[in-house]
Amino acid sequence: QHNMGAGGAKAVVVEVEPEERRSAIPDIETLKTRNPTDSECEAIWNSLDFVISNLKFSEVHHTAVVDGTMENAWKQEKELLSDQIKIVDRFPQDNPGIIAQREELQAEWDENARQLEKCKDPREAKRRQGMLDMHTNFVTGLESTIPLLMKKCPNTKFVAKKD
Question: CB-based contacts of 152: which residues, under 8 Å, 6+ apart?
């Protein structure tokens, strides 16, 4: 396990054997010569659905960053983290659990402060707008492949949420 940041999120690293890495989705050259099987269609649909969902999640984040909603949330978070740090500081500081909690809160506060600093940089605003535009374009592009995929995979239903 690896610590993935101030929020304490953990990522589990799993070793995968090379034969387990093979995709259930055939490469594009194979699909030029034949239609995908039903199981391949299911793998394609599920993968497409996941990628589109993930990109839409990112779009929500980037929209909030660009329109200022996220900055307001970061300001509120920073105040709440400051309050929590003050409360934790009232506990006996010889307790390893309290020390760890204080370190986690401080790391979150520091990351929050970095994000708020970035909000002041006009270059960062331009970069973040570019990220939002790019994610929106990715979603639009991927969703535009759905009609073609429906023709190639007539026995499989696409289950992605439609907005």
Answer: 31, 35, 36, 41
CA distances from 109 to 77, 89, 103, 119, 155 (A): 8, 15, 10, 15, 51
pLDDT for position 43 = 87
Q: In which band, very low, low, confident or very high, does the pLDDT at 3 lie, cut at 50, 70 and 90? A: very low
Q: Provide Rg for the chain, Cα atoms.
A: 22
Per DSSP, 146 falls in state H
- pLDDT, position 2: 38
Could you give the CA distance from residue 89 to residue 93 in angstroms, rounded to a whole number? Answer: 7
- In the 8-state DSSP scheme, what is residue 43? H
pTM beyond 0.70, yes or no: no
Euclidean distance between the first and the last CA atom of the chain, given in angstroms as a whole number: 36
**Is the model's pLDDT at 159 over the cut of 50?**
yes
pLDDT at 6 over 90: no
HEC letters along 53-110: HHHHHHHHHHHHHHHCHHHHHHHHHHHHHHHHHHHHCCCCCCCHHHHHHHHHHHHHHH
Beta partners for residue 11, in sequence order: 2
